Amino acid sequence: MGTVTATIEVGDPQGRNFREIELEVDTGSTFTALPREMLDAIGVSVNRAMPARLADGTTQSVELGETIIKLAGQQFTTTVIFAEEGEPSLLGVVTLEQALLAVDPVNNELVPVVAKRY
After folding, report:
1. 46: pLDDT strictly greater than 90
2. 36 CA to centre of own chain
3. Do the beta carbons of residue 32 and residue 92 sit within 8 Å?
4. Residue 91 located in a structural domain
5. CA within 20 to 30 Å of 53's CA: 83, 84, 92, 109, which one?
6. Is the sign of the CA dihedral 48, 82, 5, 67 positive or negative?
């Protein structure tokens, strides 16, 4: 399977100032991880910290915030991880589900899905 990437616009919490970023889609990541420097620059605040398991099995504390993003023609609020320098920017599964998108592993792209309501 290849790598799926997406371009999103990340905005300040008021939805006025947006910056574009291309990032890898990672369905193994719960939340979207974005560079701390970018989030700080547009005024996104840390609102909590939580433990997160890394790919190597270790656990570390990560800082989270809420902000507005634009993805696939939609604008919505999502939870983001403040990634430190050298850490990858990743589009996580919570953001994908909020945008009603799924990964098509055959064509290496994001595809729209229909919401489920049970």
Report:
1. yes
2. 13
3. yes
4. yes
5. 109
6. positive
Q: With respect to residue 118, please indicate whether it lies within any of the assigned structural domains.
A: no
Say whether 92 sits in a helix, a strand or coil.
coil
Angle value at C-alpha 17, between 16 and 21, nearest 5 degrees: 130
Residues in a beta bridge with 48: 64
Instruction: Kindly report the backbone phi and psi dihedral angles of residue 73, in degrees, each rounded to the nearest multiple of 5, phi listed first.
Output: 75, 10
User: Which two tokens mark 25?
Assistant: 């889609």
Domain limits at 25? 5-112
Looking at the DSSP bridge assignments, the partners of residue 101 are 112
Q: Is the pLDDT of residue 1 over 60?
A: no
Domain count along the chain:
1
- CATH code of 23's domain: 2.40.70.10
